[in-house]
UniProtKB/TrEMBL annotation:
Active site, UniProt feature: D280 (proton donor/acceptor)
SUPFAM superfamilies: Composite domain of metallo-dependent hydrolases (SSF51338), Metallo-dependent hydrolases (SSF51556)
Pfam families, alphabetized: Amidohydro_1 (PF01979)
Lineage: superkingdom: Bacteria
Record protein name field: N-acetylglucosamine-6-phosphate deacetylase
Ligand binding (substrate): A147, N226, G227, R234, H258, I318, A319, G320
Length: 392
């Protein structure tokens, strides 16, 4: 018998082609943190017992808990700070509906990055909330370095690629690189062969260079619009290359700062089902304004916007974000105009597909037999309740 039944809900977890929002009559039954049944109407009565906790969702949305494939930190810590601080990072993101994330590491020397990846690989082996590791650099363009130390940037030599793969010990989920760098085509082939999702980002590449990278196996555009040339009618650039490559997922930092709503509407409209909401969150997420560090760079957060702080106290490039996934989802509906189910899938199904963790024909994360990690959202898509495992 189930421990919990949530009924009178609109479950945002099905094929969008057949999804209907007209009736809030779907329900889900959970035992020991696992989905044991789900359906429509009043049939939930038949699977409940006197000991079952019955929750009336009162017509609210129920969605799978979120997945963030680009996260640098939270709760005052970055992922480079080591295993003692992983709990604080996870707690911040879980409180906002994220059940699992990828640990993203900023550019470092090859030796320094390898040391961080070895630690991260251990965390990924031990903690199911860590989906894997993301090396965002150091194979990046100095012209679009963003909040990456210019001293750490380098070309992807075979030796560097081998060192990174060895250090990650099979836990490298994603690597971001600039495809115009010397050795990039060979690096893409090597990473793809190792089962790593290759992302194009922090790049000066034009449309043709980017498209060649996608044809070679790259399959993600790192935080679309940021760290790359914009769209120009005579120089279409990497964004339009990603839109023209049907296998490519476009990451979107949907905070209204990195990407404003009209640009977000462009990519979500032209690439339905291929936009993955991410946070790019750094240490200040869940904290407040003040001074922080991202990699080796000092960062100042003012009005929740993180920027690199120079020695003279001035601020420059945006340095990650303080965004949480619930805010990204809410903005996706309220400002970008995505449907509730499209927004929910951009925060769950699509990120998992981008990493090769979900088959294209799977449209449900809350299937019978799967973990009942879910969030309850009100009519404005704001998270009101989070269930991760058997914890509320």
């Amino acid at each position: 018998m189930p421990d919990v039944v949530v009924h009178n809900a609109v479950i945002l977890d099905s094929d969008p082609a057949t999804f209907s929002i007209d009736f809030a009559d779907t329900w889900i039954a959970v035992a020991d943190g696992i989905v044991v049944d789900r359906g429509r109407g009043v049939m939930w009565h038949q699977c409940a017992s006197p000991a079952t906790r019955i929750i009336d969702a009162e017509g609210a949305y129920l969605a799978p808990a979120f997945v963030d494939i680009h996260t640098h930190g939270g709760g005052g810590h970055n992922v480079e700070d080591g295993p003692d601080h992983l709990g604080a990072i996870l707690d911040v993101h879980r409180a906002h509906g994220t059940r699992a994330l990828v640990l993203s590491y900023v550019s470092d020397t090859i030796a320094g990055l390898a040391a961080s990846l070895r630690v991260g690989a251990g965390l990924a082996r031990e903690n199911p909330a860590v989906l894997g590791l993301h090396a965002e650099g150091p194979f990046l363009s100095p012209d679009f370095k963003g909040a990456h130390s210019p001293e750490a940037l380098t070309a992807p030599t075979p030796e560097a690629v081998a060192t990174i793969l060895d250090a990650a010990d099979g836990r490298l989920a994603q690597v971001t690189l600039a495809p115009e760098l010397p050795g990039a085509p060979e690096a893409i082939a090597r990473f793809v062969a190792a089962g790593v999702s290759v992302a194009v980002g922090h790049t000066a590449a034009d449309y043709a260079q980017t498209m060649r990278a996608f044809e070679a196996g790259a399959s993600i555009l790192t935080h679309a619009f940021n760290g790359m040339p914009g769209i120009h009618h005579r120089s279409p650039g990497p964004i339009l290359a990603a839109l023209d490559a049907p296998h490519v997922t476009l990451e979107l930092i949907n905070d209204g700062i990195h990407v404003q709503a009209p640009a977000a509407r462009l990519v979500t409209g032209l690439a339905p089902g291929r936009v993955a909401l991410i946070t790019d969150a750094m240490a200040a997420t869940g904290m407040g304004d003040g001074d922080y560090v991202l990699g080796s760079l000092p960062v100042r957060v003012e009005d929740s916007v993180a920027r690199v702080r120079s020695a003279d106290g001035s601020v420059g490039s945006i340095a990650g974000s303080t965004l949480t996934m619930d805010d990204a989802v809410q903005r996706a509906v309220a400002e970008v105009g995505m449907s509730p189910i499209a927004a929910a899938q951009a925060a769950g199904l699509t990120p998992l597909r981008a990493l090769g963790r979900l088959a294209p024909d799977v449209h449900s994360l809350l299937r019978v037999g799967q973990p009942a990690d879910c969030v309850l959202l009100d009519a404005d898509m704001r998270v009101t309740t989070v269930w991760i495992g058997d914890r509320r």
